Amino acid sequence: VQLQASGGGLVQAGDSLRLSCAVSGQTLSLYTIGWFRQAPGKERESVGSILWSAGNTHYADSAKGRFTISRDRAKKTVYLRMDSLAPEDTADYYCVARFRTSSNYNYWGPGTLVTVSS
Known about the structure:
- The chain is mainly β.
- The chain contains no helices and 11 strands.
- The protein is globular.
């Protein structure tokens, strides 16, 4: 599985932003696609994930209510919509994938930087 995230940029606090992740590979229905982020000087953390086949989503507590993950199977793209952005959301955001029965994300794409100014 190959992943390419895009859509990062500089926004102001309170703005919304949608990141995209182009996914390629075979048998995507066997994978879960996730989003991670890493803020400067902090550990990497999970944002949430979506099961490619059924579209079931799961969110980290920090993302619940503000972030929405969706996917377009025809376009082979996963989206991360972020609302009410705050400076603490500033981070590199990574699109990742794991086999649906695995607990480890073994596939990582390059990050896209989101900077939220106050």
